Amino acid sequence: MATVEIVSFGFGHAGAPAAHLVLDLREHFRDPHVDPRMRELTGFDRLVRRTVLHTSGVRRLLRASTRQVQAFVAGPSGGRIVVAPGCAGGRHRSVVVAEQLARRLRRRGHEVTVEHRDIRLPVIDR
């Protein structure tokens, strides 16, 4: 199996990392940041995780992304595959999607590493 690296990030802090697959979560999925109760939380907090996973389309995106990674793995070169889910600040949606995608891929036998590039950076004022 290929090694999969997942790097969550926030577009508001810096550009997307070099990746084979970039998932831009900013416009199509509800942002927990707009709820003051969740603004300072991260994707590791239960409330944020539940909110993101109950957003219409997120689970479908996770299934499709899992299939895309498996298509890369099936290619002739295999090797390392980098996936970069990004949201505005890199604290909420991108973290949840990264962790859930890693979980799905590990269940399919892939070696997966996860890095949350911007999770410790300040919340972006919007």
Automatic annotation (TrEMBL):
GO terms for molecular function: ATP binding. It holds the Pfam family PapZ_C. Residues 3-119 form the RapZ C-terminal domain. InterPro entries: RapZ-like, RapZ_C. PANTHER family: RNASE ADAPTER PROTEIN RAPZ. This is ATPase.
